[in-house]
Input
Amino acid sequence: MESLRPKWGTRSKNEARAWSLWVVNYFNSCGFIELLPWVGSGYDMERFGILAVGSPRHADVLVVAGYITKKAAKRVKMIYDEMPSPKYVMALGSCPMTGGMYWDSYSTVKRIDEYVPVDVWILGCPPKPENVGHGIVMAMKAIKGGFEGH
Amino acid sequence: MSEEITSSLKSNFPASITGIVSEDKNFSLTAKKEEFCEMLSWLKDSGFDHLSDVTCVDFIEEKEFEVIYHLWSHTRKLRGAVKVRIPRESPSIRSVVDLWAGAQIHERENHEMFGINFDGNPNLSPLFLEDWEEIPPFRKDFNSREYVKKKYYGGE
Amino acid sequence: MEENVLEKEIFFPTMLVPFGPQHPASGHFHAMLKCDGEQVVELIPYPGYLHRGFEKLMEYRLHVQNSMLVDRICVLDPFANEMGYANVVEKAVGVEAPEKGKFIRTIMAELGRILSHITWIGVLSMALGLDSGTRIAWGDREKIIRLNEIATGGRIYPCFFVPGGVRRGFPEGFKEKALKVLDYLEKQLNLYDNLVFQNKTVHVRLERVGVFDSKEAAALGATGPNLRACGIDTDVRRDEPYDAYPEADFKAVTMKEGDGYARALCRRGEISESISMVRQLLEKMPRGKIRIKELALAKAPVGDAHFCCESARGELCFYMVSDGTNKPYRVKVRGPSFSHTLSEFPYLVRGASIADVPAIYWSLDPCPSDMDR
Output
């Protein structure tokens, strides 16, 4: 009977994860605006298997797109904690990296990786859709190659 | 066109107006703190039914705040501004919520950013900031760059 | 005889339902709905998730640096913010931009209005569950963004209008490309009419939902299409004309009913009017200088200046106080979504059912970054 148990090799598990990355529907701030062409028919993310889902429990990827205020940082951490493993985090734009255009604002967080661990950093203000695509493909290749997330 | 408004105001409230500037389609005047509510009420009854904005400016050298009410009349197509000066120590002014319902949220924002108390406003709880312990951030003695350097960039 | 189960009443205690900040149908805006069963009794807003203290940031920067920063106030309609700031500095200094600069500014501002309304069609469709509207609208938006890139170099944040005019003129062949895009968009409007505006589902979800009359709208501070849907005919482009608007022939679209569907039709009418305005202005474009370069580092005299312009959402006002240096002493930005989301939305939602809340929210076309600044 044991021989009937399906044998999942690591290769197909990683491929399955890479081709169905579901993103939490969290429209952050101005850095998100260049993800709209990915949702629409301009660049179309569904052909990569990416969907935007409403609940953090259904999602694999958290996209922190743009600046985060101190008030929103607590909620980002809450959403990150609610997502089940394996999960990945992408940071879009220069604001979550070092503060960006609002470096001297009293209410924005300057480095998002003090709150959540970040896997992919995408540059730009806002990053062009081609840059975002490059980041997505990098993430997919890493996951196919065995990156486990957290 | 704004001449008739400004001349009626001057005749109705002679003692309160300390400065008046009038162009073709807009006017701006400085009023004393005591009678400015009656003046705004008169303006509302003569057709200024849209309160565009309640702004505040911090003149730290003169030790005064200036509160400015921007008005617009849909019927006459005229724009007006009424400015009131209040002292910087324990600043407080009457609220105009009973004239325009939309004024409540503008006054709440000015209370949080400058620390001005609006008597008669039903809700002055914090609007944008959470757990804010410093002085109201838009005052001129709050240096945003010093605060950020100390808190985030390690004092460099 | 069996008793009719449907006639028995259900009793629920009052409950608090959160709407956002992470929600498929709210921007980045948080509100608590106090509900009695399915009916909303009160809405308590909690804004501030996008607050950057813009007005404080602008006090540390030169005028020309500020004109780069200011288009991030509302990301969905950046040209209106730049227009407001450039005009208020020119008013403070007392100089007007040259004719050709004004024409270029007006053309780009109207293209920005079309862009914002098409984005809004997509967002409204997403909130009402009509996903095809979203996919098609956000694909069409790419055409206008590519025109932005050809003219200004920047897709979303053009940094194009400066105090004194515009940074560069239109390149060779821009007029033909723009006219082709406008012809394409006019044909697509038929598709949007069939898919979204005459759709039975959209009718049922927006008609007689979120109604207010003209007196209430004026008292709560409504502006823009939200106000014109109640019957009050106020449009800053016509009542206090600025830039090249006196040269364009347009009418402000007004409706009478004041409900969600009337607001949607106002915006749909504005897209057609803007397409016609851009065509007229491209024909009439004069020759000449585009910029007064000395205004880049100009010092505004001691005093104040106030300027209002019409963005896609309503009346956007800039009030600047200067102290004789080349940095502003105080800038106040009055965003249209401040009153819409924090005064009108709580008023309209009382008595509605929970399922109608996203429909009312998006029929007002709010921009949370405009509200928080």
Q: What stands out?
A: The helical segments of chain A are 10-18, 36-39, 70-82, 95-98, 129-144. Chain A is about 30% helix and 15% strand. Chain A has a mean pLDDT of 85.
